[in-house]
Amino acid sequence: MIYLNEAMRISPARLEAYVDSFVEELVPRMRTHGAELLGLFQTWRTNELVAFWELEDYAALDPLDRAEREDEALVAYLRRAQQDRLAWTSRILMPTPFCPDLARIRREKLVGQVYMLAVIPLVPDRLAEYLALFPENGLRLEERYGLRTVGYWRGGGGEPYQTEAFSFTQLCAGESWSFWQEFHQRRSRDPDVASWMQRSFHYRTHHQVSYLVPAHLPY
Does the pTM of the predicted model rise above 0.85? Predict the structure, then answer.
């Protein structure tokens, strides 16, 4: 699998209409051409949208590229959508071995009302080591307190990069803001967490976090 991660800043007056058109027009057209929506999210209290699409592999991008030139309905949608976008980026993300796919997300109902999106830059020559350690350390300790990882991909990062090779992008689901309050409080008292966090600073020095709310989940 590969994933497309799109970030869009929409004219505030057009935000609701843009979401409606995205769901009613774009989602079925993209499915026709091999891209399934994992989710459309709104960055909390902003006019920014974030979408994740699942595709079979890089080769699946060929029919999608052709469709954006030859599918009249899709071409028409994209022309209208561009008028509402103030900014737009698109990146390719690669799933890690422990990243849930869309089938598992549906099967296990990995959904929430408040999501955390984290971009984690890594020291390049320690990326593989961090990837091997994370499932039994970071991921296990997050699950101890009820955090559900919806996606953990290699790539992401900020502009101007389309795909930043030496970073990970993590999407996690929480039931509410109260969940996040309790999650952070309980983790802060766990010596295992403190030990892992101190160790993790050998691999990364910071990470960027934003909170999202669902605009459309197709499950």
Answer: yes
